[in-house]
Write a structure and sequence with these properties.
With about 180 residues, the protein is mostly helical. It has eight helices and no strands.
Length: about 180
Amino acid sequence: MKEEHLPRAPEGARVHTQWDEAKRWIPSLVFLPAAVYFLTERSYSLLDYFHLVVHEAGHFLLGFFGELMMFLGGTIMQIIIPVLLLIFCYVNYKRVLFQVSMFLLGHSFVNVSIYAADAKEMKLELFGPPNVQHDWNWILTYFGGLEYHSEVSAVFTLLACAAFLLTVIAPLYISD
């Protein structure tokens, strides 16, 4: 038999194996059940404390631009911070951190969807003084759409589903 001459990797070079390809999916295997949990449980978790700090910072930072921006500021900041992390990780080829950031964005959308769903009944315990205003009640009332609180919540839930799906399939479209 004639020996075929296959190209060899330079000495000291790392050879990419099938196991290397399989390892790329390990974070996805962790994020998938977590995403399903957060979409189905729809309750607060320790991760929500991170969102709370970011949300409240948004009220403070965007509050300088008027009352409407103050009320929108919490949700805006809660979405912008994960998006900025996503951009940074994508540009710097940090796939796992990109997945973490995308998961954080999805979880933030779940958090906002719960808050928006509560806009009419206002049963959630809010952070702040006893007379604190419910952001989504104020926002939807301002725009004359309080009766659409369920639809607004559903939009954020769909965005959460999309973000979680993109988290899980990230190895298909992000290289390390």
